[in-house]
């Protein structure tokens, strides 16, 4: 059939993976087209994920910090919350970044096609243009012929089939829309997304129940970190139901009535003003006509790739949430760069040793590399050093000394293989440990690096010194 547009590189999906891949491909001289069904770039992360959640978490953290100042002799009184203004300020953060991405695409001459793409064959994509995006008309179709392609179609929230269709039952996107201030809120799924959103709503006044199927909150993080977080946050929760699940829900005038099963769960159904379902995300691999391009998609919708991010069709790459866990923006960005460089003929592989994880709760929890619980489960013995923040001048001055910094070392070489931090700004601190692991640094390298005093980052150097035996273990 007729072709409307030709390019060397087609990128399907304008999230962090897709725009990073498109920008890198263009920088490497490839004529690049980026197809995105939404009118703005940024994908889940920018529009309904990382960024709006952090804008709201920032507000929540400032409210909590203001409350905590009472103990230092400064009282502000109860905050007055204008939900419309709060929502607008969050939306402004997002749109500033949308504008920035559009400018970066334009500067690189990446051609944006706004519409839903589906493969016709290994070298053609059919795009149904999105309504209201410039000169295009609804239902109009464009066919793009491409030399190579990078699929970055991302993921979407998993829907629990028993939850009723009701404005008081939301996924993370609905929770970020901030339509109401509930009094009683249920969070289904005690992972990072559920607990971040729970933190926001509880600071705005909601009492929280959380139900989690596994035996602990924030699966994946070491339990010693989660314990610190849980102690600080105990006051936010009415019930923490572990090894339990919501099994039935019915919408009433007075709220959503939810039934539970499990050891910690109440036998009576409970009534909530808001129910947030945050039980995971499923990949969009089955919705892009991958089979027409010959690309294999597994039964869950994931696409398998090799070390260069190539699918089973060598000129078609896939990156980001679509190819598996961890579903994180910085992983998608890194993979986008690898795919674009490999497509341009560079000898580039995904060989990152570690991908950091962060829960931007209060306090934050961050970890990278090998975790202690994982190592213990596999019977691997590691060197361990912990620096408790109640020995940190800066943490004490901040009034937030509940955290700790932990480093894990290979016992033979003393090289750092893992790190974990619970405490304020843990997410900003964990990058140093990621760099240390990537560079093969050992305890003496980290301990011998002069860290500025007094900072929270100093705790990383102190932990390394603990391991070197300069101090004794302080915990
Ligand atoms: P996506 O961001 O999902 O982008 C895919 C894009 O492809 C979308 O824009 C979609 O519209 C488009 N698309 C899909 N199919 C088609 C099609 N057929 N045609 C055209 N366009 C299509 N990660 C972090 O690292 N840090 C965080 O703090 C963080 N917070 C989060 C908070 C929440 C509430 C959520 C939900 C997620 C969060 N994440 C976070 C995860 C992060 O958002 C994802 O890992 C990241 O967005 C994945 O990027 P991606 O490029 O693979 O896909």
The general outline is globular
What share of the residues does DSSP label as strand, in percent? 25-35%
Figure out the total of helices.
13
Helix content: 25-40%
Oligomer: single chain
Question: How would you describe this structure to a colleague?
Answer:
There is one protein chain. With 475 residues, this protein is α/β, with parallel strands linked by helices. The chain is 31% helix and 26% strand. It has 13 helices and 21 strands. The strands form five sheets. Strands 1-2-3-4-5 form a five-stranded mixed beta barrel. Helix 3 crosses helix 6. The protein starts with a strand and ends in a 7-residue tail after the last helix. The site of flavin-adenine dinucleotide has 37 residues, from helix 1, strand 2, helix 2, helix 3 and strand 3.
Keywords:
475 residues, 5-stranded mixed β-barrel, 13 helices, 26% strand, binds flavin-adenine dinucleotide, FAD, EC 1.8.1.4, oxidoreductase
Short overview:
This protein has 475 residues and is an alpha/beta fold. 31% of the residues lie in helices and 26% in strands.
What topology emerges from the helices and strands here?
Layout: E1 5-12, H1 16-27, E2 32-36, H2 43-48, H3 50-68, H4 83-107, E3 111-121, E4 124-129, E5 141-151, E6 155-157, E7 169-170, H5 172-176, E8 184-188, H6 192-203, E9 207-212, H7 223-233, E10 237-242, E11 244-252, E12 255-262, E13 270-272, E14 274-277, E15 281-283, E16 316-318, H8 329-343, E17 357-359, E18 364-369, H9 372-377, E19 383-388, H10 393-397, E20 404-409, E21 416-423, H11 426-438, H12 443-447, H13 458-468
Helix pairs in contact: 1-8, 3-4, 3-6
The chain binds flavin-adenine dinucleotide.
Keywords: Disulfide bond, FAD, Flavoprotein, Lipoyl, NAD, Oxidoreductase, Redox-active center
Organism: Quisquiliibacterium transsilvanicum
Catalytic activity: N(6)-[(R)-dihydrolipoyl]-L-lysyl-[protein] + NAD(+) = N(6)-[(R)-lipoyl]-L-lysyl-[protein] + NADH + H(+)
């Amino acid at each position: 059939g007729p072709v409307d547009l030709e390019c060397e590189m087609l990128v399907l999906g304008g999230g962090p993976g897709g725009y990073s891949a498109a920008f890198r491909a263009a920088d490497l001289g490839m004529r690049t087209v980026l197809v995105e069904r939404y009118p703005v770039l940024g994908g889940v992360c920018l529009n309904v994920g990382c960024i709006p959640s952090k804008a709201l978490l920032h507000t929540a953290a400032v409210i909590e910090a203001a409350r905590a100042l009472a103990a230092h002799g400064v009282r502000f009184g109860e905050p007055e919350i204008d939900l419309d203004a709060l929502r607008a300020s969050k939306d402004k953060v997002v749109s500033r970044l949308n504008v920035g991405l559009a400018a970066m695409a334009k500067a690189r001459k990446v051609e944006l096609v706004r519409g839903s793409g589906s493969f016709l064959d290994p070298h053609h994509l059919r795009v149904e243009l999105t309504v209201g995006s410039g000169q295009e008309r609804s239902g109009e179709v464009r066919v793009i012929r491409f030399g190579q392609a990078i699929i970055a179609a991302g993921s979407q929230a998993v829907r629990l089939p028993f939850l009723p269709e009701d404005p008081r039952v939301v996924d993370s996107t609905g929770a970020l829309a901030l339509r109401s201030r509930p009094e009683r809120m249920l969070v289904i799924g005690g992972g990072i997304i559920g607990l971040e959103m729970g933190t926001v709503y509880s600071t705005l006044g909601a009492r929280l129940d959380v139900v989690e199927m596994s035996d602990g909150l924030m699966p994946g993080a070491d339990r010693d970190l989660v314990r610190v977080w849980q102690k600080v946050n105990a006051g936010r929760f009415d019930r923490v139901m572990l090894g339990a699940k919501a099994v039935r829900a019915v919408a009433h005038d007075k709220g959503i009535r939810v039934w539970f099963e499990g050891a910690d769960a109440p036998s009576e159904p409970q009534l909530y003003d808001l129910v947030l379902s945050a039980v995971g995300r499923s990949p969009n691999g089955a919705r892009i006509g991958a089979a027409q391009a010959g690309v294999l998609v597994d039964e869950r919708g994931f696409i398998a790739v090799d070390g260069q991010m190539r699918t089973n069709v060598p000129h078609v790459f896939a990156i980001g949430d679509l190819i598996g866990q961890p579903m994180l923006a910085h992983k998608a960005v890194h993979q986008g760069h690898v795919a674009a460089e490999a497509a341009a003929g560079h000898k580039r592989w995904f060989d990152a040793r570690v991908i950091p994880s962060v829960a931007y709760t209060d306090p934050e929890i961050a970890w990278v590399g090998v975790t202690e619980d994982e190592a213990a489960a596999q019977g691997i013995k590691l060197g361990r050093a912990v620096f408790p923040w109640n020995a940190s001048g800066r943490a004490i001055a901040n009034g937030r000394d509940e955290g700790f910094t932990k480093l894990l070392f290979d016992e033979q070489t003393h090289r750092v293989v893992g790190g974990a931090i619970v405490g304020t700004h843990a997410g900003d601190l964990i990058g140093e440990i990621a760099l240390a692991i990537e560079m093969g640094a050992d305890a003496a390298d980290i301990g011998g690096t002069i860290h500025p005093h007094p900072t929270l980052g100093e705790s990383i150097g102190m932990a390394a010194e603990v391991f070197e035996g300069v101090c004794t273990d302080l915990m």
